[in-house]
Each structure stands twice: as C-alpha cells, then as structure tokens.
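Quick one from the shared queue. A colleague (R.T.) flagged HTH cro/C1-type domain-containing protein as missing a structural entry in our internal table.

Convert sequence to structure tokens.
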Amino acid sequence: MKTKAHTTLPTPVTDELQRVGLALRRARVARGESQAALADRLGVSERTLREAEKGDPGVAVGTLFGLLWAVGLSGTGAELIRRVDGNTAPVTNLRARRGKALDDF
C-alpha cells in the first residue's frame, strides 16, 4: 500500500530515485548478478530489490545505500556530503541541549 508521502514527493525527487534505481539495476546486471543472489547477499527480499531498482520511495535509505554498496556504487553518500560541505558555510551557532527533550528515549 502506498502512503501519502509516496504520492506527494516533488517530481524531481521521484525522477532522481528512478535514475538511482536504474543505475543500481545496470550495475547489478553488469556484475552478472541475479536479483535473487543480490537480495540474498544483502539479506533483503527480492521484492525490496525490485522496488529499489524501480525507484520506489518506500525503500529504506539504509537498504538503498547497502544495495548501492553491494554493486560497487558506494561513493554515493560521500559525494552528497562533499556537495553539501562545499556549498554551505560552517555552522557556528551550535549549543548543547539542556534537559530532556520529548524525542529522547
């Protein structure tokens, strides 16, 4: 079942997810690995792998990064960090949080 978040993502985001999924599929095929073998190696279901290759936004980011790593596309996260670090000013107004917040478990 699709959630509202899956249908309200901006078009550029869904387009990029589809491009990432296609790159994942192409890299897997180039390595000669079946969907079943890759899914088994990463401990995910074949359905999850198929969804990732289609660019489904419901695939967990950790799973997606694991799959990209497994097919040799592991620099993706590092590239994002470099892009952000190169385009932003350093954060200088960080303060220590005092007390317990509602999200502390």
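The chain has six helices and no strands.
Helices lie at 4-7, 11-30, 35-42, 46-54, 61-70, 76-87.
Added to the table.
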